[in-house]
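cron nightly-structures :: item 1 of 1
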Amino acid sequence: MTKKSITVVFFGSGPLAAKSLELLAQDFEIEAVITKASPLGHRGEVPVLNLSKKLGIKAFPVENKAQLDNLIESSHFSSDLGILIDFGIIVSQEVIDYFKKGIINSHFSLLPEWRGADPISFALLSGQKSTGVSLMLLVKAMDEGPLLAYSELSIDSDATNPSLSGELVDLSHELLKEFVPRYLEDSIEAQAQDITGREVSYSRKLTKNDGIIDWDKSADKIEHEIRAFIEWPKSHTKLGGIEIIITSGHVVPAKDTKPGNFKIDNNELLIDCGEDSLSIDKLKPSGKPEMSIQAFLAGYTGRLA
């Protein structure tokens, strides 16, 4: 069985889904794309819909679980398999059972670690040294299906959400290329998630309030947040009344800190945290582009008093 002879239906909605779809289309035949419909009045990007149009693949936007059930009930897809990445809609057992071989979910963690909506952010927030990708057979319970394959990936100490996401998309595609044909040929068996040796944990959707920096947290924790939140919700704070987004910083050991207090020392901006201090490397003042801390201090020091 060649990969290009394999036809699948793709389920995906977000940017990670679009990047994954672009890679999958190089190795598999995509019969159709099912994606989350944009909210009424939405003016932002719709990456999966745009890519589907570019690739000439029929796309079916659905708003919720009920619409997805109705679509599948009224459709006549010939594919034996669905592939789901970054979809954002609950999938019923009826939809899973529609496909002779079910639906494979490529989940960007080593399950059962970081089940849920945002495993990449929570891997960075936790400060762990590695994560990975799990190919799971979708079941009704959230992220509890058995694994067809998994692979571990080291997390660089300076990894951000975008950089880690890119690495995981590539790893996901390599796993799908290798294991989808083997699964369809019945040459591999699904195994319980505890084979990875990871503990059960859960991620969640981030909110806008997650981006408001709490200086009572340790500098180490805040530095993790900056890298995890760099695209959204971003790491917001005020310095002397100036609204800023911190985009890069590093931990400086310190004692007797007063959380939120800041000082300028030898062209370095240090902010006290609950434990240690954070030295700011790059930031974005409100309405301005990202700049180095040296450029910021050259233009804003007089307004920080």
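cron nightly-structures :: done
Residues 208-303 form a domain with the Methionyl-tRNA Fmet Formyltransferase; Chain A, domain 2 fold (CATH 3.10.25.10).
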